[in-house]
Specification:
Layout (H helix, E strand, L loop, with lengths): L3 H22 L5 E9 L2 E8 L2 H5 L4 H13 L5 E6 L8 H13 L4 H14 L4 E8 L7 E8 L6 H6 E10 L2 E10 L37 H9 L1
Parallel strand pairs: 2-3
Antiparallel strand pairs: 1-2, 4-5, 4-7, 6-7
Helix pairs in contact: 4-5
């Protein structure tokens, strides 16, 4: 009999290990995440990346090699890999963190690169953004610098629902730089209260329903009614 707890635990462990491997191997391809699902033909692996061409490779060589690695080292049965770009890369914290790390490795100044990152995030419609760069950024002594714009939730239910957070590492001659990107997505907060606009008044008009109008002139008198009944 199959141990259900062990089965789902192993499944989650495999998903985490594949995610860590792809993030480390393809961070320069702006890796955003992966989805793994079981199919009758094998395993479907959908990889989201800002630059899919790097993962696919020339004539699909890189993706074929990746399929062999996933089958051999992660025990994924007949993996069918699909690479797709994320819906909005500027609102994905992982994409922006890897993009900032690659920019730092190319020699850009950390403060300028962080400002450009925040501006791109806010122009994409985010409610708030925060970028933290740490390491030997200005001297031999390690320190960190934080840039923030808009609203960034730190606690509460909004932290789980609206905030996306990612960490990346940039390797430079001065040492290792840590990069942290926090994005508040443009989702309506559950505690946001808005007042509805009042409807236009009817101007004192009174509407009466279920009323029957009787014409008094055409209505016969009580005596006439009795004589008609006597006849």
């Amino acid at each position: 009999m199959v141990d259900v707890k062990k089965y789902f635990l192993q499944k989650s462990m495999t998903r985490v290990m594949v995610d860590e491997f792809l993030a480390k191997e393809y961070y320069n391809a702006e890796y955003a995440g992966t989805e793994i699902s079981k199919t009758p033909m094998g395993t479907r692996v959908t990889i989201y990346a800002g630059r899919p061409a790097i993962i696919i490779g020339k004539d699909g060589r890189t993706i074929k090699r990746l399929a062999q690695i996933l089958e051999k080292y992660f025990n994924l049965e007949n993996p069918q890999i699909t690479v797709a770009p994320p819906e909005k890369p500027e609102l994905n914290a992982r994409v922006m963190a890897f993009r900032l790390a690659v920019t730092l490795e190319r020699g850009y100044h950390f403060r300028r690169a962080a400002f450009i990152t925040i501006r791109k995030i806010m122009n994409a419609g985010a409610i708030g953004a925060e970028v933290i760069v740490s390491g030997k950024i200005t001297s031999e002594r390690a320190k960190f610098e934080k840039l923030k714009e808009g609203i960034v939730y730190k606690t509460g239910n909004n932290l789980d629902v609206m905030v996306d957070r990612a960490i990346a590492i940039a390797t430079l001659k001065m040492g290792i730089y840590g990069v942290e990107v926090v994005i508040t997505k443009p989702i309506r907060s559950i505690d946001k209260i808005s007042l509805k606009e009042g409807t236009e008044s009817s101007g004192g008009e009174v509407r009466v329903t279920n009323v029957r109008i009787i014409d008094e002139e055409q209505r016969p008198s009580q005596g006439e009614e009795s004589s008609e009944q006597a006849e």
